[in-house]
Structures are given as structure tokens and as C-alpha cells.
Amino acid sequence: MGHQLSRRSFMASLAGAGLIAGQHRAFADTWPSRPTNIVVPFPAGASTDVVARLLADRLRGELGQGFVVENKTGAGGNIAATSVVRAAPDGYTLLFSSSGPLATNKLLYKTLSFDPLTDFTPIALLGDVQGIVAVHPSLPVSSFAELVAYGKANPGKLTFGSPGFGLMGHITGELIQRKAGFQMTHVPYRGSAPLATDLLAGTVNVAIDFIPAYIPHVKSGAIRGLAVTSDQRAPQLPEVPTLSEAGLPEVNATGWFGLVGPKGLPEPVATRLAAITRTYVESAEGREKLAVIGVRARSGDAAALRAAQTQEIARWADVIKAAAISLD
Fold it and tell me: pTM of the prediction?
């Protein structure tokens, strides 16, 4: 009797699983039937926003429905991330983010209301982007080594701006200062656009940020690029050395972009989104449009995105702890 009951329970569970899978497939066949919100944790004009809008255009064209980018700023990206975690997992609310909210914020916020490794459905990895150390021309330095020397000789005079407290520019700046042995006063901004504006005006001496917002200004000579923060030079600014070439090895700080949904997003929807994203990133058009704004195409599935999250947390754990960066 007990054996029969357990067999019936087992068969019922299989039937239930099949029903759920069937419902997911049916839902995926009709999705999207209305506009989808792609929430971006940073302001319009920031690197993440620009890439999100390129992807939204492609999704719109492929799926025949609106994909609306919604900029929801604040708390280092946590406001946007939390809103997506709490959203219905129906495919109509997605998060497009850089590695902060999807990884390093786990290290920065002791009371984070979500876990980036368990509270999202990973969909796709789309690309990565280098950082840059850029200065206003009024600063009497023409190389990274000269910046370090100037900082050591003039304590308290250097200010460095980042696109936000605890974001990649900030923690990269902290790492650079520790490795090079000099100090700058950190000035956090609300995104790349206002930071670039203030650097152009000379309001801050130095900017450490993702490269896209600075490419045209370095090319025009309005600001000076001293180094990129990865192990390869940027194709858009081939004359700017890497930090290693500039005399500071073992600093390789890049940011990546990922698309996720709320936990429980139907697998067919995630798979469909991932396939369109991958095709776009691997196309000549996609690679070219990303390259123009300083982003390297990097096609990756859900597993690749999850691995990137894990690696990012491991890479920055010691730096954040040593610099005592905490946002609680």
C-alpha cells in the first residue's frame, strides 16, 4: 500500500512538472505580448545605459514589441536591482547591469536586500569594457608615472572622480593608489556623464571610469588619457598605454555587462532572450556598434554570466576589505 502511494505521489509530481513545463512553453510562445521594461541602474549616457539601448533596439526588431529602457538610479544600483528581484518573473521586467549590482555590491553592502548569485535568473553576458585614468590638461603630468610623482610631491592636491561610491571606478582607484603608494581625494558622481563634464571643466583633476564617455575627449585633446586599466590597449585609443606598460603591473580592472531576470523566469523566455543577444553580439553590426563606444563584444550564456559574477566577487574581496570600503 505504501509502495503504491509513493508511486502515485511520484507520478503526480512528474505530471505536475510536465504541466508547469508545458505552461512555460505556452507562455514563451505568446511572450512578449506587450512592452518589456529593461531596468538600468545608472543614468542615461552611462556606459551601461548606452549598451542597454543597443540591445533594446535589437530585441524590439526581433520580437516586434517595445523594449523600454528605464533608468532607475541610486544606492550603487541596488534600487534598480531590488525592483527587479521583486518583480513578477514573467519576462516583462529585466535588469541590464554592469558588474557592481550583479557582483561586487555583495561585498560592499552588509545589509544588501538581495543576493546577486541566487536572486536573479542569469540570461546572457554581452560584453566587457576597459577603464581609463584620465586627467585635465591643466594638471602638469603627461604620464601615469608623472601622476604618481605629482601625487607624492603634492599631498592633498589631487582629486579623483568616479561614477559612484563603490562602483568600478572607485574601487579601481583605491587599488591603484594602494599599489602605486600615493593618495587622492575621492569625489563620487552620479554616473559617467556628470563626471566627464566636470573633468572637462577641471573641477576634478583625475577621472577613473569606464572608457566610453572619454574616447572622443581624449581623441580631441580636451583631456589626457594616461592609462587603461586592463591588460590590453584599447583599440579606440591605441596610443594610451596599459597600467602595466605605465609601470603599475597586476592591475587588471574591467567591467562586464549582463542581462538577468527575476528568479523563476521561465526557461524558454530566458533561452529566447539569450539567443537573440548572442546572435547580435556575434554579428558584424553588433561588434562594430559596441566597439565604437569602447565595449568589447563578449558572447556568453547564463553559465558564463554566473561564472563572471563569481570571479568578480573573488577578485575584489581583498581590495574592498583592505580599503575599508563599506556602504552601510
Answer: 0.81
